[in-house]
Amino acid sequence: MTETTPVERVASALKDASFRRMPTPLEIAGVTFDAAAAFVGTPPSPDLVLVGDTTLQTSRDLQRIVEGVGRALDVMRSRRPLTLVLVGPRPDSKAITSLSRYARVLPVGESADAASLSNWLAVLLPLQLPRPLEARGIDNLQALRTAVDPIAREFIDLALADPQSIAQRFADIVEEPFSQDDASDKGLEI
Questions:
Q1: Which of 2, 27, 121, 168 is the most buried (most CB within 10 A)?
Q2: Cβ atoms of residues 126 and 41 within 8 Å
Q3: Model pTM above 0.70
């Protein structure tokens, strides 16, 4: 399926984040709700995500849907958080405030940029952590020799030449400021 509409772009981003698309109209506790799209998170993300399209639905329609879904979840004693993703022109702040009483509201607009969309949906998407720099073995220590800090370079050189002396050099560096103060105190006459 081609991702031509903003709703389908949101749907694609949520599917990639392991959200399961629910059939629409959405049915909860025997009541149907006409959302543009609905998704339920897979563990560990328990969210129920509704997608509302402000080009096709008025603020009043969205309010009715979100309030109804919130109440239906309460009746079912569901502990799922409710999130409303709004695509299309952004409603006024009063409408967003009203919707926020029942759901977390993410107004993504009509953005075609995938990076912008994933930024807006970041609270729903898995956290992407940077890969840590691994310093295992002598080969990686060689690569770290370009360190800017002279003390860091000294410790890397010690690790390559004499790993046993690192603890003693560390203790010496920690004691240096105190031993200099002692030497200067001895030179003073009172």
A1: 121
A2: no
A3: no
Rounded to an integer, what distance in angstroms lies between the CA atom of residue 109 and that of residue 81?
22
Q: What is the percent of the chain with per-residue pLDDT over 90, rounded to a whole number?
A: 36
C-alpha–C-alpha distance, residues 1 and 17, integer Å? 18
Position 190 confidence tier, pLDDT thresholds 50, 70, 90: very low
pLDDT at 159: 80
Q: How many CA atoms lie within 13 A of 12 on its CB side?
A: 14
Angle at 30 between CA 24 and CA 34, to 5 degrees: 30
Residue 38 has pLDDT above 60, yes or no: yes
CA torsion, points 22, 23, 25, 31, in degrees to nearest 10?
-70
CA 71 to chain CA centroid, Å, is 28
The amino acid sitting at 42 is: T
Domain 6-120 has CATH 3.40.50: no
Asked if residue 180 has pLDDT above 90, the reply is no
Q: Residue 117: which residues within 8 A CB-CB, separation 6 or more? A: 9, 10, 13, 108, 111
**Pair type for strands 26-28 and 104-109:** unpaired
